[in-house]
Amino acid sequence: MSELDNEPDIDRTRRHLVKAIPATGLAVMVAGCAGGNGDGETTTDGGDGDMTDDTDDGEMTDGGGGPSGTVEVLHGWTGGDGARAAGALETAFSEADTDVEVEMNPIGGGGNQNLDAVVANRLQSNDPPGSFANWPGPNLRRYEGVLGNVDDVWDENDFQDAMVEEAIDLHQMNGSFRAVPLGSHRLNCLFYNVSVVEEAGVDVESLTSVSALLDALDTVSTETDAIPMTQAMSGTWTITQLWAAVMLGENGYQSYMDFIQGNGSEGDVRSAFESLATIHENYISDDASSLDLTASNQNIINGNAAFIHQGNWAAGAFRNAENFDYNEDWGFKTFPGTEGMYTLHFDSFLYPADNPTPEASKVWEAFVGSPEAQIAFNQFKGSIPTRTDVSMDQFGPYLQETAEDFANAENRPPTLQHGLAVESSVMTQLNEVISTEFTGPYNVDAATQGFLDAVPNMS
Amino acid sequence: MTESRGDRSARSDGGSVTEEGPVREGFLRRLSVPLDRRFGSDFFESSPFWLPPFLLMALFVYGAIIWNLMISLTDYTGFAGSPDYSNLDFEMYTQAFSDPGFREAAINTLILLVAFTAATLIVGLLLAILIDRGIRFENTFRVIYLLPMSLSFVVTAQFWLWMYNFNNGIANRLVGSIGLGPYDYIGNQALVLWAVIFALMWQFSGYAMVVYLAGLRAIPTEHYEAAQVDGASTVRMYWRVIIPQLKGATISAAVVLMVFALKAFDFLYSLVSGYRPPNGADILATKMVREAYANLNWSYGAAIAIILFALALAVIGPYLYYEYQRGYL
Fold first, then answer.
1. N or C: which end of chain B has fewer CB within 10 A?
2. What pLDDT, on a 0 to 100 scale, did the predictor assign at position A317?
3. Which chain B residues are closer than 8 Å to A16 by Cβ?
4. For A286-315, what is each residue's pLDDT tens digit?
5. Per its UniProt entry, which superkingdom is the organism in (chain A) (predicted)?
6. Where residue A75 sits, what CATH number does that domain have?
7. Neighboring chain B residues of A435 at a CB cutoff of 8 Å
8. Quick check: is A417 in a domain?
């Protein structure tokens, strides 16, 4: 520094340069910015409709011997069951009779958040993948304007007859099909550790109402040292999900449907929150706030906890644990009060407009809905096919029972936390309410009001 | 002087090759002389060296910031269409200031910024003074204190999560041994932000220590000796003689730490594997990503980003000005 001080000339030069930078920089920025705008507008205008249709037609007439090429597929199944299932799906596709190749790009982490962010960036920059995994239903709304239609795929493959009835509505937006379902998880599940429940003397089959469940949790807490209900609260999604199950179990299908359509009964929403507060205040573990799903499942496997409410992906963790068998070590009960219901979830592949490989992507979409794909994927994923005509022989006993319940269910209410019941912005809002009002201390009044306010009136 | 010498050689070169030489040279000269006069000698001649990186920076950093500012003035959401720049207003900013979630995140960000920086500087200074006292195994201790900084947030977040576990975390064991607690560090909204600050302080105090240690080593031994000859106690010597000389080190360490605090996103994200930190620990960075990617409110997310940028500028700006005043820039 002393050297600099001795040479005022150099010093001054550098100082002048510093002054000059902002001025010149600003000019360049404005130019760059204006250029950016222009680009954005032109591409999007093209992408809005015309371009997509043109490309589609072009390829259809050109493709003499069926489409070929490589479809890029994004999904979020990176760990355990998911990765295995995705691998099985990829193998099944390579064995299928087509000239199309698939390039699977898994993007894991943060639930589906990282996948969603990557998809958002790519759709935003007009560089969509051939297809990506996501939830259908109102969740499709967030992709409004950038999804193409796969009506022809549904027609050519008779998916309308083959798929479960609910799939037909939930895969459409603005009158066209936008996606094809691959599998379905069930949300109204109560899993338990058989030996803990037996030690407490609880007869699980008799739990057919939320109040019976509360009594059973109380029995577990007095009769054993185990945690009555393990709850992973490091995220809010488990809480929203449990609230939905309690809401269904306590107030029934119609009240739940009224709520998601924005006509929720204040008393019903409140009573569900009251029961949830009872569970959270008395029957979950003290360290729930630092538990994630894996740790929570581990509590059941280790016999540290009696019950867990989860989607049936949790069954995958139990199945993979050593010496931990269905009906001997762990058991399943439809969430109390939701007997005869199957809370519906779909894993689907969405079809972006302005598709880089329009025809090849449609071959992929058609494959996703085929029996081969659904069997290959779901038996490992721990979910069940969305087709009603698939043989369940290759599936384990637990999934066979699930498929039976699925087929015989009186009602299949859509899951609240996984895109089928409300739009994603509403879902985020519900989770904000849970985070601020219901992660302890539990404010039933504010949470009730927050939930009722969050859901827009659909009717 | 330099210019005329350059001119002469240029003329002889240009003249021998082509006739265009004098014309171009005349144009360049007309351009370069006033520029050099305005910005100092060699401004023009040196431009091939600094101009390309300068333009790249301008476009990709400052251009992106300006673009982000433009987006924050639109109402852009979702994927359909592109931002409409014809109708710019500050609606997103008024929305932000009336959004209780935003206000909470902003307050948490400020608390994190101030408390984390202050605590880290104090701990770093104490460590540096202890190590500077000529202790045994000095290098070993220095490495031990610096090590946490080399770990990624993903790692540190996970093991602080374990340490903060209510039932078997070491944090509760420790406070339990002096008869306190147990506390629910992550689940209690009054505690969680402080728990995060403590974890970040643990990770970065080693950095503050290194900066202070360099500062301490630059202070001549005579200052210590003079203070001791004058009969100052050790505490008094540090407080009145040594610490005032560490002003430069404090400022540069504080700036780096504050910028780290604004970027605590990684730590919170890893803590819960998601964009929604535990209630009570939401900061602007997480709120921004949630708005942009979970809700696709691009313009609202951009507005939060600009506010965050203004905060960072408020931290960095005075430092740059201070350095500029002292002639370091």
1. N
2. 85
3. 38-40, 43
4. 888 888 888 899 999 999 999 999 998 988
5. Archaea
6. 3.40.190.10
7. 276, 278-279
8. no
Confidence of residue B181 (pLDDT cuts 50, 70, 90): confident
Query: Do A156 and A209 belong together in one domain?
Result: no
Examine the domain organization and report whether A312 and A351 are in the same domain: no
Q: Do A142 and B79 touch (CB under 8 A)?
A: yes
| B167·A286 Cβ contact <8 A | yes
Give the best residue of A287, A432, A442 to mutate against chain B (max B CB count within 10 A).
A287
Asked if B328 and A1 count as a contact pair (C-beta separation under 8 A), the reply is yes
Residues of chain B found within 8 Å of residue A120, distances taken between Cβ atoms:
79, 293, 296
Mean of per-residue pLDDT scores for chain B: 85
Torsion A257-A262-A267-A273 (CA) sign: positive
Q: Are residues A286 and A205 in the same domain?
A: yes
Contact B39, A17 (CB under 8 A): yes
> What ipTM was assigned to the predicted interfaces of this complex?
0.74
pTM: 0.80
Query: Using one digit for the tens of pLDDT, what is the confidence trace for B44-56?
Result: 788 888 899 999 9
Residue range B94-325 in CATH 1.10.3720.10: yes
Q: Does A37 touch chain B (CB under 8 A)?
A: yes
Q: Is residue A350 assigned to a domain?
A: yes
Ranges under pLDDT 50 in chain A: 1-12, 15, 17-64
Residue B273 has its nearest CB partner, among A20, A110, A120, at A110
CA–CA dist B227, A56 (Å, integer): 85
Q: Containing domain of residue A125, as a range?
A: 65-185+345-405
* Number of independent structural domains in chain A: 2
Nearest to B191 by CA among B168, B172, B167: B172
Tokens 């071959």 locate to A363
Least confident of A36-40, B203-207, B308-312: A36-40
| A54 domain residue, yes or no | no
Judgement on whether residues A149 and A296 belong to the same structural domain of the protein: no
What is the band of B23 on the pLDDT scale with cuts at 50, 70, 90? low
SS (H, E, C) A143-196: HCCCECCCHHHHHHCCHHHHECHHHHHHCEECCEECEEEEEECECCEEEEEHHH
Q: Which residues of B touch A25 (CB under 8 A)?
A: 54, 57-58, 62
Report which of A401, A409, A408, A372 is spatially closest to residue A387, judged by C-alpha positions: A372
Chain-chain contact of B166 with A292 (C-beta, under 8 angstroms): no
Q: Which of B82, B164, B294 sits opposite A290 (nearest CB)?
A: B164
Residues A225 and A273 in one domain: yes
Q: What is the pLDDT of residue A376?
A: 93
The alpha-carbon radius of gyration of chain B (Å, integer) is: 27
Using H for helix, E for strand and C for coil, what is the string for A250-283? HHHHHHHHHHHCCCCCHHHHHHHHHHHHHHHHHC
User: Is A23 at the interface with chain B, CB within 8 A?
Assistant: no
pLDDT value at residue A34 = 38
Smallest Cβ–Cβ distance between A15 and the set B184, B188, B329 belongs to B329
Task: Give the rounded percent of residues in chain B with a pLDDT score beyond 70.
Answer: 91
Of the candidates B63, B81, B167, the beta carbon closest to that of A44 is on B81
> For residue A38, what pLDDT is reported?
35
Tokens linked to A146: 């950038």
Report the pLDDT value the prediction gives residue A99, as an integer from 0 to 100: 87
